[in-house]
Amino acid sequence: MPDRNRSQAGGARAAPSTRPRSRRWIRLRDNAIAALLWGCGAFSAAVTLAIVVVLAEQSWRFFRHEGVTLAEFLGSTRWAPLAGGTKHFGIWPLVSGTMLVTTVAMVVALPLGLITALYMSEYAPRRVRAWLKPTLELLAGIPTVVYGFFALTAITPLLKMMHAGFGVYNAFSAGLAVGILCLPTVSSLSEDALQAVPRSLREAAFGLGGTRFDVAVKVVAPAALSGIISAFLLAIARAIGETMVVALAAGSMPRFTFDVRNETQTMTGFMVQMALGDVSNFGVEYYSMYAVAFVLFLVTLALTLLGGFIRRRYREAYQ
User: Fold this and answer.
1) pLDDT at 233 over 50
2) Are 265 and 93 in contact (CB under 8 A)?
3) E strands present in the chain
4) Which class is domain 72-314?
5) Where are the domains of the chain?
6) Cα–Cα distance, 10 to 19 (Å, whole number)
7) Hey, which of 36-40, 140-144, 269-273, 309-313 has the most confident mean pLDDT?
8) CA pair distance 311, 217, nearest whole angstrom
9) pLDDT of residue 1
10) Which residues pair with residue 88 across a beta bridge?
11) How many CA atoms within 13 Å lie on the side-chain side of 117?
12) Model pLDDT, residue 316
């Protein structure tokens, strides 16, 4: 009995000695994870800062060349950096081509994506939703060069059969392909935002006599407005930054036009042309690529800031 009591007393004294070790280990592990997360965030910020510095530095070299002025870059509607005679560096033809393709793409992707999201969230049976959503997300995994060749070999011939005004390269064909490319982004993110709306709101609307259409359009969609708009802005940013589809289907002739039947060139298409072309790495043509990239960066940054403002302004919090 004394030995047992002595052993029990020793065990009682030994137990507290293990707790500080476990607490120290947990504290060390938490500090390591926090340091790792901080390092990942700092690395992301450093990469973003490095990109901004490189773009700003190379763009400054572009404007230091003789004959290049900021007034012409922002005010002219002629873009001809590879001309044999006088070169012109007006950014607006590239901006108009980018906006033209993006507008066509969003006319296709935004309404179809939202309607698909509403169907999957509010109407589709569970089995249908289980295969429909992964099927749509498979479209996002197809290489963009495939969409470009699809636009060039399938969409463009069909458009030329419907109207003789379409050329081999045109903004409408590229916009349709980019719209199909952005459709999974809109539908998937919008459906996630709709699914995040509490079930109690739906049940309350049904209890007041609302139909399924009324609940989906007048209750669920407004409640998920911030997420839906964020999905829209992300799709717009992706359409603006798309490269291979527009490089293959839109053409390489920069022109300030609003006719979707014409051949045009986007900002990303011009950068591909410069990267693959036989131009000097020290010439004004080469540095113009960085100036165009800096404008593209400012556009996407503005969309990101707008998306953050909309999320803060229209975000709904539910208990």
Assistant:
1) yes
2) yes
3) 79-80, 88-89
4) mainly alpha
5) 2-64, 72-314
6) 15
7) 36-40
8) 20
9) 46
10) 80
11) 29
12) 65
